[in-house]
Design brief:
The chain is α/β, with parallel strands linked by helices. The chain is about 30% helix and about 30% strand. The protein is globular.
Length: about 190
């Protein structure tokens, strides 16, 4: 899948029922009429492996030595990217509201970290994961995701690669036309 086009990726999401339409509250707090449910794609091991191989093909030149993903959404794809690269896979998780390394995971000055997510919208959790790595003294060489739904405006300070970039509209809750129409909002993501 390293040569897969964004259309191939979106076709995969449609085929497995992972491209949803409705009124959604994203992890970022923004509202949107579209939602990409990566877990529905990643529940299929062959699709997860193919996405991991695809991302690995785009980031191999960064020479990462470890993949760090935020829990929960980034764990499966982070593991698949690490497997395709032949490097270690770890994840950061929230403890008392703060993203941190737990479970015996550690990073050090010799580590070249690639941060891997399932979907990037605002880039907030990616930046937070980058900060976790840097606080451990590691060098962050890049970030990657299956989907960049920021439309290319995630504004990360490291090289960023995604299998597909999409521009689904997002709205601040107080300016959401779906809310104004009284449509109920659904929160399908991993953080409540």
């Amino acid at each position: 899948m390293s040569a897969a086009t964004p259309e191939d990726i979106l076709s995969l999401f449609r085929r497995v029922g992972a491209l949803l339409e409705g009124h959604f509250r994203l992890t970022s707090g923004l509202h949107s009429p579209g939602y990409l449910q990566c877990a529905v794609v990643l529940q299929h091991p062959r699709e997860a492996e193919a996405c991991g191989v695809g991302i690995a093909g785009r980031v191999r030149s960064l020479a990462p030595t470890v993949v760090l993903s935020p829990a929960l959404g980034g764990i499966v794809i982070g593991h698949e990217v690490a497997r395709a690269l032949g490097v270690r896979a770890i994840f950061a998780e929230r403890q008392d509201g703060t993203l941190t390394l737990r479970r015996g995971f550690s990073l050090g000055a010799g580590d070249r970290v690639l941060v891997v997510e399932d979907v990037v919208t605002t880039g907030g959790s990616t930046r937070e994961t980058i900060d976790v790595a840097r606080a451990q003294g590691a060098s962050v060489v890049g970030a990657a995701a299956i989907i960049d739904r920021s439309g290319g405006s995630q504004n990360l300070d490291v090289p960023f690669h995604a299998l597909a970039t999409v521009s689904l509209p997002t709205y601040q809750p107080d300016a959401c036309p779906l809310c104004a129409r009284g449509e109920p909002v659904v929160k399908p993501g991993s953080r409540a």
